[in-house]
Structure formats: C-alpha cells, structure tokens
C-alpha cells in the first residue's frame, strides 16, 4: 500500500474499527498466474495473534474456495467512507479537487474451517449484522439441524485468516489546514445524507479543528 506518512492509520484499533464498520471486503489472490477476487462479508476477531483474525465463507462452487486450501497468500481490502472533495468548500484558495477515503489492507494465509466452525462463523456474522437492525428482534440460526440449513451448509466453505500484516490509509485532509477541513466537514453536514454525515464525522475525527467564536 502506498501511503504518505501523514495519512497513516492512527493505530491498530482504528484499522480494526474500520473493518468492523465496513466488513464487506474484497479478497484477492493469484490463480494460475492471473489475479482473482471475490467480495465477501467478514467477522473480525481482534484478540487473535498477531494483528487479529478474519473469518469468512464463500460458495464451494467458486474456484477460489479450492485455492484457499493451498497455503496461498491473500490480500483483503476494506473500504471505509469516501467522497469527492470540491475546492469550492475550502475556506482558503486555491485548491485542486481530490478524493477523501479510508481503507485497510490485510494480508495472510487462509485455513479452511470444518462445518462446526463454519456454523460459528455464520452465527457470529448474523449476530453482528442483526444488531445493526435494532430494535428489530434479531434473527438467529436454529439450534437444531434442519433440512434447509444442512443443504445450505454443504454449499459453502468457511475459512479463517490470521492477519500477518495490516496496513491502513486514512486520507482525510490531514495535509490541509484545520480551518479548511472544518469548512469541508461543514459542507458535508449541510448535505444531510447518511454518507455525507459519515464523511463529516471522519474528517472531524482525524483533524484538529479550530474553535470558532
């Protein structure tokens, strides 16, 4: 990952936070001399050595599922908030258009899971996502086996990745003046959309904003 020093992720916790907030990652690897990729939701286990562990699943029919058993190194990319930045929204001039974003790249070697651990991965993934839908009563997997679930389980392959390396870039205006980034955050808040409010939160979190009288 290319990353100027001023866009470095604050710490491991910030990178973990991004993965948990935006768990739909892009897993990439090399197969037969060509790049291959699949988009998947992940569960993060923060406390696993050395930098945490990812757990996921994919269709057994996907050729990547077989490749994961062959001790290959994979990269999983997670993308957080991102947006175009207009020069018109800075307090000072001149500026040039740019893009603000945050992303985390994870590298490691996958290990396949047996059915019991795959069920655990599904249970944890569903619980995390259902919690976001509160106050709806959460959906949970049935404790007892069923014909439908047994059939589904045979169609998927679970896996885990102990994180061997993790890199993050948080390109959120840290190379601009605090007053310019305060103006950008204000412009995002005025749009009022869910994505623009998230971007404003990110800009405010990673920049020392001035106190206006």
UniProtKB/TrEMBL annotation:
Name by which UniProt lists this protein: Transcriptional regulator
Location of region: Disordered: 191-213
InterPro entries for this protein: Split_barrel_FMN-bd, TR_PAI2-type
PANTHER family with a match to the protein in the record: PROTEASE SYNTHASE AND SPORULATION PROTEIN PAI 2
Taxonomic placement: Bacteria, Bacillati, Actinomycetota, Actinomycetes, Pseudonocardiales
The species this protein was found in: Amycolatopsis jiangsuensis
SUPFAM superfamilies: FMN-binding split barrel
